[in-house]
Amino acid sequence: MLAVLFFLIWAPLPLLTAAPQRPAPALPGSPAEVRARADRELGLDAGRLARLEQRARETLAELAPRFPGTPSRPIVVTAHRDADSLPAELREHLHEGTPGFVLLGHDEIHLLLDEIAPAPPGDLRTVLRHEMVHVLLDQFAGQRAPLVPRWLHEGLAQVLSDFTYLGTTEEGLVYVMAIGRLPRLSDLERDFPADDLQRRRAYAFARSFTAYLVRETSLETILEAVSRLDDEGFSSAWLRVTHHGLGREMEAWRDHLLNESGAPWRILFNNCFQYLMIAAVGLLAFAAIRRFDRESRIRKRLELAELAETAAAAEAAAESGARPDSSDHADHGTTDGQTPH
Ligand SMILES: [Zn+2]
Q1: Which of 35, 36, 140, 275 is disulfide-compatible with 77, CB 3.0–4.6 A?
Q2: Residue 175 belongs to what domain range?
């Protein structure tokens, strides 16, 4: 009722006086495009559910314009309590410790409210944006959706949600590159590694490389390549769109990461305190050893001097014991009562 009054007061006059027309298509983020529901076990009250749906609508309204033609199908956001409360058919899609996932091709976002953190990257805003990008990219690709590489999915989801998933950083990637463990794009076409460490590296790599592509070309260029995907894969589509291979982009990205991103310097500065502490501990240990040496030398000298004194005293005592002592006679004379009366 309040919404109707608000509309009547503020709606422009021409709208009120114009002849009735076909209803305008629903705007992105309207209830026709996104709807929230809660797992029955969760017991989410109507107010919290409405707020969740509102957040989902706002997220969709922000992101849909980046993917022309979306949303092409209604999106459903379902709130669950935790991983244990997920139905078995959904649990297999969840990676341990993650707060959300999507069912591509079904336009479903699933959130685990107990896993949602108060701050990024695990907060509600970031998680909703991340999962919404997956759904919108899937809808944008249409029939080509199964051909979209997983690294591009995860890369765009992280870039457009402004945060790395799993908290991985470019600084970490510099280490990974230095030890020759950088994942290959071809290994991340269909799925990400199950191993936790390798999965973190894969997310960091996907984000950094995709961010580089967005920055150096544009999101529109990437989406054009998606729209021209065929069985030959994303590399071929990229070549058709940009007229140069993805390998060249990869070399340029490596060069950027090592020489222009500042990541190696950030590693140095971030570890500066640790390096100083290690140096300080080393200096303290060195000083302590030197002091100990000096004290032990002094102690040894004193001991030697004491020994020499004792030896000299013993020698003197031995000498005095070998000949008669005149002082003995004087004492005896006194005790013999020769004192005058
Ligand atoms: Zn993702």
Answers
A1: 36
A2: 149-261
Residue 341: per-residue pLDDT: 42
Alpha carbon of 151 to ligand 1 centroid (Å): 9
pLDDT of the residue at 68? 97
- Look at residues 127, 147, 167 and tell me which one is the last residue of a structural domain: 147
Q: What is the CATH number of the domain that holds 83?
A: 3.40.30.160
Distance between first and last Cα of the chain: 139
Residue for token digits 């009722």? Answer: 1
User: Is 59 part of a structural domain of the chain?
Assistant: yes
> Residue 63: inside a domain, yes or no?
yes
C-alpha 255 – ligand 1 centre gap (Å): 26
Helix (H) or strand (E) holding 308: helix 272-322
Counting the structural domains of the chain, the total is 2
The answer to whether the peptide bond before residue 71 is cis (omega within 30 degrees of 0) is yes
**C-alpha 120 – ligand 1 centre gap (Å):** 14
Classify strands 100-103 and 108-112 as parallel, antiparallel or unpaired: antiparallel
The percentage of residues in the chain with a pLDDT greater than 70, rounded to a whole number, is 71
Dist. CA 101 → ligand 1 center (Å): 7
255-294 tens-digit pLDDT:
999 997 666 656 555 655 555 565 565 666 656 666 667 7
Name the nearest CA neighbour of 123 among 99, 103, 102.
Answer: 99
Q: Which of 242, 261, 280 is the endpoint of a domain?
A: 261
Give the whole-angstrom CA distance, residue 141 versus residue 157: 15
CA 100–ligand 1 middle distance (angstroms):
8
103 and 187 share a domain?
no
243 shares a domain with 156: yes
8 Å CB contact between 87 and 119 = no
CA of 183 to the centre of ligand 1 (A): 17
DSSP result, 146-193: GGS-HHHHHHHHHHHTTS-GGG--HHHHHHHHHTT-PPPGGGGSS---
What's the chain's average pLDDT? Answer: 81
Between CA 273 and CA 278, with CA 275 as vertex, the angle to 5 degrees is: 110
